[in-house]
Each structure stands twice: as structure tokens, then as C-alpha cells.
Amino acid sequence: MARFELCTETHFSAAHQLRGYPGDCARLHGHNWHVKLHVECEQLDELGLGIDYKVMKRELKAALEPWDHYNLNDVPPFDKINPSSENVARELYLEMSRRLDDARLRVSRIEISETCTASVTYWPDLPR
Predict the structure, then answer these.
(1) Which residues contact 1 (CB under 8 A, 6 or more apart)?
(2) pLDDT tens column, 63-119
């Protein structure tokens, strides 16, 4: 079956340190994190849209607000789990799924970049 995948991008700034890491990243440091949100659907709405980009952008901004310009190590759930790129991507995926998933569309993946040369993509292994 054919699918549409829509994507929007944004960024946020936050510090973090990796607990137990044997190197420089154990020290507090910051990033301008680049985020890509991907949403997929098979059916379009009555306007011919999968989802309005404005909705995607609004919800992504709201989801990132608790992290933007904070030390992630002080913000749940990263006060308990390491704020690695992998964990940040998974937690953002879960939050965006709560915000956007419905009977017609779902968040398909999240990509997070700490730098312009290092990124992680998270998506669950879900039945289609």
C-alpha cells in the first residue's frame, strides 16, 4: 500500500553530560540539537493533506519547550536516564506519538543531531 511521509525540522539548544562516560562527554557541554520529525499516513484528509505542517511544527515546539535552554540532566526523564542522543530521540518519539498519532496517521521516526556530523534516528518496530 502506498504511504505519504511528511517531515518538518527544527532545533533546540540544551546542555547535557553523559553519566559514566569515559571521556569528554562526561563533562557538562551544550549542543544546538537539530530535530527532524517524520509522520506517515496512507489516507489524506478532505483537504488532500496528510497533516498540516503548522500542526506538526506547533506540537514539536511544545514538546521541545521543556528541554530548550536547559541542562537535560536536570529534566525528567533524563534526571534518571542518560541524556544520550539515542535516549533523547526515543523520548521525543514517544512524546510526539502521544501528541500526533491517530487512526489515520502516526509518527514514523525522529532524527536527532548533536552536531552536523553525528545523528541518530529512532523508530519502533511496529506492525503495519
Answers:
(1) 42
(2) 999 999 999 999 999 999 999 999 999 999 999 999 999 999 999 999 999 999 999
